[in-house]
Amino acid sequence: MMKSTPLKIINVTLTSMVCAYWIICLSVLLGSHSQLVKRDLGPRFNRILSMLPKAGPTSRSINVADIGCDHALLSAHIASMHHVNCVYACDISEKAIYSAKQNLQSYPSHIKKKVHLLVGDGLHPLLSHSSSKIIQEEQIDVLILSGMGVRSFFDILCDSSTDPSQKIDYWNPMQGVDTKVLDSLGVNRIICQPWPPNFLPLQAFIGTVLSSKTSSRRGSNNNEGSGSGWRLECQAVDKVAGCHYITSSFVRTPNDSPSMENIDNSVVVTTPGTFCLEMNPLYYNSITGQLEEEESACWQDYLNKQLVSLERKKQGINGNSEKYDIDNIIKLVKASL
Ligand SMILES: C[S@@+](CC[C@H](N)C(=O)[O-])C[C@H]1O[C@@H](n2cnc3c(N)ncnc32)[C@H](O)[C@@H]1O
What is the DSSP string of 163-181? Predict the structure, then answer.
């Protein structure tokens, strides 16, 4: 048997120490990367993440657009998902896109590569020449709108015929979502989480989306989606730091699925703000006793707060028919408490 000389022992020890050092460095590096990627974004963003289409063995990878991405933390997190092909992180503010760019630096390159930062108003950057590839070759499967007021949602999704300086008129049928743009982008799902989630504008927005018919889907050879509309597939309420957040996920739906016309006429009032109340899964599940205890308490808490502002709004209304409408809304809300 060969005897180990002291020199050999020192050599082996030094080599193992160097190896151990590199292993530790590598695992710290990988650990911090995966920690960064798997960082918990909190209940508000987690709710949005939970409404994204799930990866499936046969499902193709998806493209997502995060409009008003700001810091792009949500965009980066979505890009880290295996079934996500790319995320278009758009914001009207150059400053926001600059800070998003800085934030992205700390992510691994395979995630950074999947996030496309675009500056511009609403959907415009997606339609612009530089990214027209989306129209020709790809599609935006999911559109995310969060952290903006409902007014901005209307401006981004609805026909540009509305004058942004005008207040939203809850009492007139809305002009509808600009389906041509959504169709050209191939959007199949819209996830929205407005802030603030004021009851009337939010219901008016939901009513507008649900009453919009889409035309034929871009890129499809058959007539898939022709004459289809939108369905409010799921909805949730969360209370974070004393504030309520309502997250709603609309999906493109064929025309034979339940639509506005199928709702019991007793709850169909003429205004968009009320006719869709029963189409809100939160409202429907609440009146049918299907909400989990915690969510039910959160929803009731939200409605009670909204009732205060609805009553205040009623005081400021002069027209009889509008007063009648708001009374109906108040009655419907109270009936669910
Ligand atoms: C409060 S931040 C919300 C960020 C993030 N989406 C969230 O939910 O926390 C709102 C962002 O929307 C952007 N924004 C507002 N109006 C917009 C518009 N019309 N088009 C694109 N971005 C817009 C603002 O610049 C801002 O960065």
Answer: -TTSPP-TTS----B-HHH
- Which of 268, 299, 286, 271 lies closest to 335, judged by CA? 286
Q: Where are the domains of the chain?
A: 37-53+141-261
Residue nearest to atom 9 of ligand 1 (CA): 147
Question: Has residue 108 got a pLDDT over 60?
Answer: yes
Burial bucket for residue 280 (CB in 10 Å: 0-12, 13-18, 19+)? buried
- Kindly report, residue by residue over 165-176, the tens digit of the pLDDT: 566 666 555 556
Q: Is the beta carbon of 267 within 6 A of some atom in ligand 1?
A: no
CB distance 51 to ligand 1 below 6 Å = no
What Rg value do the Cα atoms of the chain yield, rounded? Answer: 25
Q: How many CA atoms lie within 13 A of 6 on its CB side?
A: 0
Q: How far is it, in rounded angstroms, from Cα 119 to Cα 123?
A: 10
